[in-house]
């Protein structure tokens, strides 16, 4: 999970747009203005310049992190402590003007998430439900059946991250891989918290129709 060219590419694109938008005085890149009574205000770095805010960092959770840490015989936190500085160095190597590099394991991020979660829960925007689907750990995404290809046991396929990996099988049963990436998927079912996005359907349509 070390930095690769794709990470550098997206960072440079974001940096180019942020610099251009700042020159043009684009308001969309201004830092959030929190009410003085909000607990979130104290969680935002006070030294962030008011002109614009380009934020980057490392998202330190998920099955991919867990498996990589196990492979390295480290805890997830220990593993991320080693990997995160590499991503920060990538910004420096490519002169990306990141004004706030944040790790999701930082207290300020955790506290902000907890506060946001409490707000959503209090306003009735969260509910529990069971979800089932085809999940790819490598891609960290769910896929529909029409996005998958059935392969024979132990067939080598081309992947976006590895050269011709061998797809694992159980009892020589055919497995499914993502057609676009070649990465294997597994059928998972879990009970989790869901966000009532449909309740924002009309406001979102109105906002999109207005040009954002």
Would you spell out the secondary-structure blueprint of this structure?
Blueprint: H1 5-24, E1 55-58, H2 63-71, H3 76-93, E2 100-103, H4 107-122, E3 126-136, E4 141-143, E5 148-151, E6 175-178, E7 186-195, H5 201-209
Parallel strand pairs: 1-2
Antiparallel strand pairs: 3-4, 3-7, 5-6
Helix pairs in contact: 2-3
Key words describing this protein structure:
Rossmann fold, two-stranded parallel ribbon, three-stranded antiparallel sheet, alpha+beta
Could you characterize what this model shows?
The chain is α+β, with helices and mostly antiparallel strands. Among the domains are: 5-33 and 49-105, HUPs (Rossmann fold, 3-Layer(aba) Sandwich); 126-152 and 173-195, no CATH class. It is built from 5 helices and 7 strands, in the order H-E-H-H-E-H-E-E-E-E-E-H. Strands 4-3-7 form a 3-stranded antiparallel β-sheet, with no helix packed on it. A two-stranded parallel ribbon has the order 1-2. Strands 5-6 form a two-stranded antiparallel sheet. Strand 3 (126-136) and strand 4 form a beta hairpin. The longest helix is centred in the N-terminal third of the chain and has 20 residues, at 5-24. The radius of gyration is 21 Å and the shape is globular. It holds the Pfam family tRNA-synt_1g. This is Methionyl/Leucyl tRNA synthetase domain-containing protein. InterPro entries: Met-tRNA_synth_2, Methionyl/Leucyl_tRNA_Synth, Rossmann-like_a/b/a_fold. Keywords: Aminoacyl-tRNA synthetase, ATP-binding, Ligase, Nucleotide-binding, Protein biosynthesis.
């Amino acid at each position: 999970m070390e930095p690769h060219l794709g990470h550098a590419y997206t960072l440079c694109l974001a940096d180019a747009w942020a610099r251009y938008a700042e020159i043009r005085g684009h308001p969309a890149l201004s830092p959030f203005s929190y009410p003085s009574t909000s607990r979130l205000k104290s969680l935002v770095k006070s030294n962030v310049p008011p002109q614009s805010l380009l934020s980057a960092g490392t998202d330190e959770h998920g099955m991919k992190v867990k498996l990589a840490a196990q492979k390295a015989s480290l805890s997830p936190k220990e593993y991320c402590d080693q990997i995160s500085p590499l991503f920060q160095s990538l910004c420096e190597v490519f002169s990306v003007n990141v004004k706030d590099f944040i790790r999701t394991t930082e207290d300020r991020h955790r506290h902000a998430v907890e506060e946001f979660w409490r707000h959503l829960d209090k306003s009735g925007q969260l509910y529990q439900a069971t979800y089932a689907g085809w999940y790819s750990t490598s891609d960290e995404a769910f896929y529909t059946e029409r996005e998958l290809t059935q392969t024979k046991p132990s067939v080598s396929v081309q992947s976006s991250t590895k050269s011709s990996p061998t797809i694992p099988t159980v009892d020589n049963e055919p497995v499914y891989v993502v057609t676009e990436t070649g990465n294997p998927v597994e059928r998972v079912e879990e009970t989790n918290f869901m966000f009532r996005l449909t309740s924002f359907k009309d406001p979102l349509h109105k906002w999109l129709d207005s040009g954002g």
